[in-house]
Amino acid sequence: MDVALHAQLLTVGFSVGWVYALVALGFLLIYNGVGAINFAQGDLVMIGAFVAVTAASKLGLSPIASLFVVVVSSVCIGFLFGRIIYTPLRDKPFAVFIIATVGISIFMANAAQIIWGPAPITMPSLSGDRIFDVAGAVVPVDYVIVGLVSIGTLVLLYCLFMYSFTGRQLRAVATDRQTAELVGINVDVMTSMAFVLSAVMSGVAGFLIAPMFFAIPTMGPPLGIKAFVAIVIGGFGNMVGAVVGGVIVGVLESYVGYYISSAYREAIIYAVLIAVLLVKPTGLFGEAIEEKV
Amino acid sequence: MRSRVIGVVGIVLLLTLPSWIGSGYLLTLVNVIGVNMMLALGLLFLLGYCGQLAVGQAAFFAVGAYVSALLTTRVGLNVWLGMASGVAAAALLAASVGFAILRLRGHYFALATLGLGEIVVQIILNWKEVTGGTDGVTGIPKPVLFGWTLQSDAEFYYLILSLVGVLTLGASRIRASRIGRSFVAVRSDPLAAEVAGLNVFRVKWVAFVLSAVYSGIAGSVYAHMFSFVSPEAFGLIVSINILAMVLVGGAAQIWGVHVGSVVVSGLPELLRFTREYYMLIYGLGLVLVVMFFPLGLSGHLRLRRSGTGGTVSRNARKFGESVDAREQGADIEV
Description:
The complex is a heterodimer of chains A (293) and B (334). Chain A is mainly α. Chain A contains 11 helices and 2 strands; from the N terminus they run H-H-H-H-E-E-H-H-H-H-H-H-H. Chain B is 74% helix and 1% strand. Chain B has a two-stranded antiparallel sheet with strand order 1-2. Chain B is globular and about 50 Å long. The two termini of chain B are 37 Å apart. Classes of the chains: A mainly alpha (293), B mainly alpha (334). The A-B interface holds A 36-37, 85, 88-89, 92-96, 98-100, 102-111, 113-114, 221, 225, 228, 232, 261, 263-264, 266-267, 270-271, 273-274, 277-278, 281, 292-293 and B 53, 55, 100-101, 103-108, 110-112, 114-116, 118-119, 122-123, 125-126, 236-237, 240, 243, 247, 276-277, 279-280, 282-287, 290-291, 294, 333-334.
């Protein structure tokens, strides 16, 4: 009984956690490229979820085709986001960028509400509502698919960052903008690239979240904050840390929801954020970030 | 002389306002604007003077409102004592939480305050036995002043008017004082301030507690004015609105936040015809303001005035601040 329960809580927690990891990585990519927090990150996920739902249920596309639609639309949104919001604010203090993204977050949430309505929309199940029943543990197949797709995407991203030329350039810009420019990297192109990649990760996360939860216009900010919590847990700036942090947040949420209260789930995640910031601001894998904290 | 005449006319207009705008919805709106002015003044200490980006001011607003509401309805405490307790509770929350989160800087502080705001709302929503959850608290009693119950919007108008007056005066006195100058020192360069012998942490802590006191006063007035509080009035969007008020008005002059409050609270009424598109416009407007008017209305006015060779405002001279308008206007920048 106990084993089954934990298996269930862990599977759900991990599946959701991998998606959070994806969002966190997108969040971090913009942070590393720009040096400021993007408050609208969660709303990029929200748009991805709605596009996925529309493609799958309104247009009746297959999951693979829907994913393709999500990726293409995310590329466009990410490019525009970088060009319209970030480029004009490049030389301004970080607070200006933060507040601008708050404005964009409000804009996107309300645009989604006008387009898709305020009510939650469901996505048809990826697996036809099948479930795994292993020794009493009941796990929807969707969750497993979501977990696997997320892991696949994360591995793909890891290879991109570590082994491709673009990945190296991206990392160079994140480490030291000026030096990167000096050695001939086109920093502007790389910044656009960071926004596009970040939006794609968020869009894919939205596609994966849609079958597990609902798509609802207000889902953005809480997701963005959870991604931030994941990043803080993992150690700011550290990509592996962000992934581990995302999984921790997912599992934590799953356990808190079962053992303490699902009503206080969000409050507890925020409390964890403040606690980690206070007790171990460098996170699990972080280096010293004296100047930032 | 001319400015004195304008001042007298302004005061007369303010004092007679309820008699010429009537006691309808417009007066309620004016009162709400007054409450928002108190909230914006509170954030002025923290963001405008001290340069700390806080996105959770609604937490103190909520604590001020709920503590006063609950003590007067459930315990039967005198309304004024209830309001004082609300303010004290908000201050206490800031004083204790501040100890922890003020060690964080920049993004981290912003996110921690956002977390604080969300935690308070979640507790109000879920601790139903005490707070009533989404139903809120109803039947909050009206304050009695020398045997005279403040009942109507017009009566509340004068309470709010005098509070805004006192709090504005207080803020400008504090700004001119030693601690006010240390706020600005911390904003311009924390390291230099530290080297000059300021206890940066304590300066920020004072600004944080002051902002909570102002927000707590706003909250307790709000609760007794409407006789009803519910969690919707204290969500993230409220904190963002307060932020927008300070940004729109700018921190270069104290009246900036008043103008900001009028603009941010009045705009939904003026743009009512846009209906569901309003929030869309609002979000976009916020982006445009920080892109094109990062110093706020008061900052840009000052910039223009000094740019055309006009006199630097009286306040600036009084405070002995730099005459460089850019420096002045930069109040909002963190």
